[in-house]
Amino acid sequence: MNIYADNAATTKMSRTAIDTMLPYLDRIYGNPSSLHSFGQRAAEALLSARHSVAEALECSAKEITFTSGGSESDNQAILSAAAVGARNNKKHIISSAIEHHAVLHTLDKLKKQGFEVTLLDAHKNGIVRPGELEAAIRPDTALVTVMYANNEIGTVQPISELGKICREKGVIFHTDAVQAVGHLKINVAEENIDMLSLSAHKFHGPKGIGVLYAKKGIPLTSLIEGGAQESGKRAGTENLPAIMGMAAALKEAVSKIDENTSRLTALRDRLISGILEIPHTVLNGDPLNRLPGNVNVCFEGIEGESLLLLLDSKGICASSGSACTSGSLDPSHVLLAIGRPHEIAHGSLRLSLSEENTEEEIDYIISAVKETVTYLRNMSPIWKDLQEDKKSYVIQ
Ligand SMILES: *Cc1c(COP(=O)(O)O)cnc(C)c1O
Fold this sequence. Notes:
By secondary structure, this protein is of the alpha/beta class. It has 13 helices and 12 strands. It has helices spanning 15-25, 37-57, 70-87, 101-112, 130-136, 159-169, 240-255, 257-275, 304-313, 333-337, 342-345, 359-379, 381-387; strands at 3-4, 64-67, 92-96, 116-120, 141-145, 172-176, 195-199, 210-214, 281-283, 294-299, 316-317, 348-352. The strands form 3 sheets. The chain has a 7-stranded mixed beta sheet, with helices on both faces. The protein has a 3-stranded antiparallel beta sheet with strand order 9-10-12. It is globular. Bound molecules: pyridoxal-5'-phosphate (PLP).
């Protein structure tokens, strides 16, 4: 068995995306800014990709800026809104405690420049409360940035309600929708989203390419100076092969959302109920308001890293949290934010599925996890203390 269950970290490229890219790596290599026929051919392709992405988000092509991925889009969205705010003496930003580091680290940078940041509580179920956002908005609030769906625990936020509040209060609303685009139905206009970040490699497109949607009238500050590409909002020759692959992958993902959601939800729930048969195990995040492919659990008395390595030796690729924090010994800021104590947050496991996973694989994962958790607990001095009542269980 060789099972890939780490689709929140990255996905396998779809055949359609690869086939769409190939001619642009081979024959159609012109620079879209060149006036000759090679350039014009590339420029036409670029425009068609922009229209295709706009159609998937139900917005206008002029509102699409191609970036190098989710991190860049998050940085540019936040820094652009902060620049608008600073010009109007508004230096307060609202976000949530469970954002991706691309958001949190950008906010840290702004704090050093005199911005004040309020992080909304994600509560035990990993979901922010619209009433708390409403109460946090001040006359000097320049931006609200709340992710669409969380990359670790999969919780889906009430985006249209949050967007409505921001619209009514006249505050710019950005959402990091990297985990949601291509997996959940999104309509930026209906959900009152002013800015949205997406990344192709999370929906079977290529790595290193993404989009920042910015509603007409929201000025973007360029992070990269140079040529006038992307209407002056992002300098540098466009990565046309990747842009074409992204547009194709997005169109394909959006067309399959209904089909994939029902398939994945069934696989996810089968996996969750199988794993929760293990005693002293708890699901992280809301059981219903979560991404169709996300499973995230904590086990009492287990070290997440050892579990991962043993699962890998059994052919299962999973994660203990986000790829960005693995390698560091700090437990996940998301698990701490939803109230998991340190010792439990260390014993976490994230399995993120794609439509390519099968029921047979799910059943194999369940038995491998059961076996491995038992094995690790039998070696653990903490588990021994728990069993002998020298310590009490955190997870009942
Ligand atoms: C993956 C991810 C990012 C970063 O996207 P890159 O394209 O890898 O830079 C940002 N936010 C979330 C929620 C993600 O899952």
